[in-house]
Amino acid sequence: MAEVAPAPSRGAVFADKVRLGFVASPAPEAQAALKKFAKRYGAVDPSSASVIVALGGDGLMLATLHRFMGTEVPIYGMHRGSVGFLMNEFIEDDLPERVANAKLSIIHPLKMQVENMAGETLNALAVNEVHLFRQTAQSARLSISVDGKERIGELVADGVLVATPAGSTAYNFSAGGPILPLKAKLLALTPISPFRPRRWRGALLSNKAHVKITVQEAGKRPVSAVADHAEFRSILSVSIREERAIGLKLLFDPGHALEERILAEQFRF
Q1: What is the pTM of this model?
Q2: Tens-of-pLDDT digits for all 269 residues of the chain?
Q3: Which residue of 28, 79, 97, 260 has the lowest C-beta tally within 10 Å?
Q4: Does the annotation mark 58 as catalytic?
């Protein structure tokens, strides 16, 4: 009886079809990994890759997500930087197989629309959060509306932020906001060093909510608005909502999924 060779695994089959494109932070360890991987596995231009491998830390991952936003190309991060919450462990061997067997997480960014004192309307997208912050020594005075209804007439604080579940472990958590499970259809609205109202510590909102934040005394108490890396100064108001039309695809090794990491972060002390 003739022997039948075992069928190749799904990972092995897909690994043969993966076209890897690499991006790396300027850090020496990331640049060294880039050269080594390109030589060992070959590399295509990131614009024609089926998977982009990002070598660096979370800052590089955010920059890569913004650079390729709207392309629907999945991104597989490897930790070659400082903070690596969004990255997989750096291992040199079997990269195509690891990528082929990785688990997919899809996240949606926030869309920020700003009206500034110059009369301009400006837009930006945020993977982690949108935050407003005072520009001078004086506290910001803000009002907050959700879905057209005013919820806080005057918030006196350093600022306020709206965070996605993926970004809830970053600035939001440092400001005292809650960590949100990745699949929770929620946004975190969190004040930054609030003075009044004293007992308000934020709110959980539906991911379909439309948040509008208006700056009071904008000339006397100027405020900036930041969406990840994009900053606009001297603003009058900011509108924030989730942009469901854009799905960002991140790949994680089995057992290292972003959903599990966000859950585990709630039990660290």
Answers
A1: 0.86
A2: 333 333 334 444 455 678 999 999 999 999 999 999 999 999 999 999 999 999 999 999 999 999 999 898 999 999 998 877 889 999 999 999 999 999 999 999 999 999 999 999 999 999 999 999 999 999 999 999 999 999 999 999 999 999 999 999 999 999 999 999 888 999 999 999 999 998 899 999 999 999 999 999 999 999 999 999 899 999 999 999 999 999 999 999 998 778 887 888 888 77
A3: 28
A4: yes
Cα-Cα-Cα-Cα dihedral sign, residues 244, 248, 252, 258: negative
| 95: amino acid identity, one letter | L
Q: How far is CA 96 from the centre of its chain?
A: 25
Structure tokens belonging to residue 265: 């972060």
Q: Which residues pair with 30 in a beta bridge?
A: none
| 45, 58, 147, 253: the active-site residue | 58
Q: Residue 88 gets which letter from DSSP?
A: B
- Cα three-residue angle 43-50-74, rounded to 5 degrees: 115
Amino acid at 116: N
